[in-house]
Structures are given as structure tokens and as C-alpha cells.
């Protein structure tokens, strides 16, 4: 596990098995996934612990992450298996905790699970 953006929060997991293109998939004003081909279609990422494999798409997606934070529609934290520049930059700009985990840890996190994220602890993810 690697911490890319520090922070402490807790919330309910919304998990995707598909990469997320923040620029083309997330409505900046509502935080709702708008791509009908995505497994989180019509679900809100607002105030969640967003777990997904990786980000994809344009570097402008980092601005989308910043925008959803500014509009109070952002996740409380993001957890993914691959650190791409878009997600890392967006989370850093928006001050959203970001953790990178391995495939085994990814499989252990379930949709709807309550998690505590505290990047200052040795084990930063804890089920509640």
C-alpha cells in the first residue's frame, strides 16, 4: 500500500471494477457517473470512499476532480490499484486522500463496506 495524498476520513465504499475517466464520466455538479456503459452509471461518488482500478483519459480529468471537490460532490477518499497522473494530480489539488493498493487488497474491499482511512497509521485502511 502506498499513500499518495495524506488524509483521514471514514465512509461507505462505492467500488468499480472499471477504470474511471473523470472528464467524460463524472458530472462535476452532482458527482453522479453519467456514462451509461460504466458499472457505476447513475451512482453518486459524493461523500464515498471511491475504490476503482485506475483513472483513464485526458489530464483535464484532474481539473474535474478539483471541480467536484469545489462543488462538494467529491468522494471523501480514493483508493485504486494504479497511480495514474490524472488521479494523483487531481487528488493532490483537491486534497482528497489517495491510496494505491495491490490486487489482493482491491479484491478484499467490498461495495457498501464502511472504511476508515487514516494515512498517518501503519495500516491506513480499517473496516468499521
Report what the structure shows:
- The protein is α/β, with parallel strands linked by helices.
- It has helices at residues 22-25, 61-70, 85-94, 103-108; strands at residues 2-5, 8-15, 48-52, 77-80, 98-100, 114-118, 125-127.
- The protein is globular and about 35 Å long.
- Strands 1-5-4-3-2-6-7 form a seven-stranded mixed β-sheet, covered by helices on one side.
- It has a single domain (2-127), classed as Phosphohistidine domain (Glucose Oxidase, domain 1).
- Helix 2 runs parallel beside helix 3 (85-94).
- Helices cover 23% and strands 25% of the residues.
- The model has no long low-confidence stretch (mean pLDDT 94).
Identify the notable features of this structure and list them briefly.
7 strands, alpha/beta, 23% helix, globular, 128 residues, Glucose Oxidase, domain 1
Amino acid at each position: 500500500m502506498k499513500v499518495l495524498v495524506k488524509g483521514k476520513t471514514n465512509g461507505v465504499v462505492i467500488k468499480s471494477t472499471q477504470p474511471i475517466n473523470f472528464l467524460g464520466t463524472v458530472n462535476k455538479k452532482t458527482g453522479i457517473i453519467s456514462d451509461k456503459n460504466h458499472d457505476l452509471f447513475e451512482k453518486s461518488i459524493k461523500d464515498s470512499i471511491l475504490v476503482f482500478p485506475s483513472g483513464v483519459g485526458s489530464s483535464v480529468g484532474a481539473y474535474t476532480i478539483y471541480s467536484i471537490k469545489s462543488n462538494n460532490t467529491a468522494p471523501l477518499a480514493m483508493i485504486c490499484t494504479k497511480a495514474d497522473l490524472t488521479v494523483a494530480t487531481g487528488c493532490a489539488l483537491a486534497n482528497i486522500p489517495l491510496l494505491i493498493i495491490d490486487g489482493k487488497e482491491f479484491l478484499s474491499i467490498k461495495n457498501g463496506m464502511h472504511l476508515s482511512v487514516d494515512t498517518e497509521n501503519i495500516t491506513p485502511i480499517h473496516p468499521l
